Amino acid sequence: xxxxxxxxxxxxxxxxxxxxxxxxxxxxxxxxxxxxxxxxxxxxxxxxxxxxxxxxxxxxxxxxxxxxxxxxxxxxxxxxxxxxxxxxxxxxxxxxxxxx
Amino acid sequence: xxxxxxxxxxxxxxxxxxxxxxxxxxxxxxxxxxxxxxxxxxxxxxxxxxxxxxxxxxxxxxxxxxxxxxxxxxxxxxxxxxxxxxxxxxxxxxxxxxxxxxxxxxxxxxxxxxxxxxxxxxxxxxxxxxxxxxxxxxxxxxxxxxxxxxxxxxxxxxxxxxxxxxxxxxxxxxxxx
Lengths: 100, 177
Hints:
The structure holds 2 protein chains of 2 kinds.
Chain A: H1 4-24, H2 28-53, H3 57-87
Chain B: H1 2-21, H2 27-47, H3 51-76, H4 83-89, H5 95-118, H6 132-136, H7 138-147, H8 150-171
């Protein structure tokens, strides 16, 4: 059987990819996608831990993460649409009015 | 060892597709690749004896959330990132910032390797404990969800309502007054 550590390594790599995406990309849509990758990485480690402990709690927390991800995507994309209407751009550097 | 082979196959697909997601300049390709990554992840969930999570992954994530992203990208007719501008203005192009980031990434890798070597649990098989039929059945998942986690479940419904109202308010076109 596959050791727990293998799943954790996959999860860590996915989370790192998501973090890199948030910092490297200059497109609000891709940044939101990177956040989704990070949430999925955490889901994978929850399910793997739950399986290794022999209970269903890991799976249940995964459902809550999914609902929060759906809410986050809806609100995040609404903000992206509102911002795009104002500036005709998806580059986060175009929205620096509040920058000190 | 078909199990191990399949694990490596799906893990490679998930990681490779996710890496390509952040390598694309066109958000449309990014979304398509992310759907592939989610499909591979749901296969990993099936290997972890969590078929209901796998189905929810496909239906909710790949089905609903990614379609929402696709709609927004198509509606906005979003411009692609400009490569030349990226090279000129990106803060990570500055040498100091880039070196600091590389240092942090190296530290993270060292820490992870140290943690996985030290912890004995990480080397134990993932399916060591528990009855597979008990863990993977929708019945037991539902029972725990509606008894131990019922408050969180109800709070989630309020969260979704708030998110729905918020999305409508934010994205609605402002009326001329």
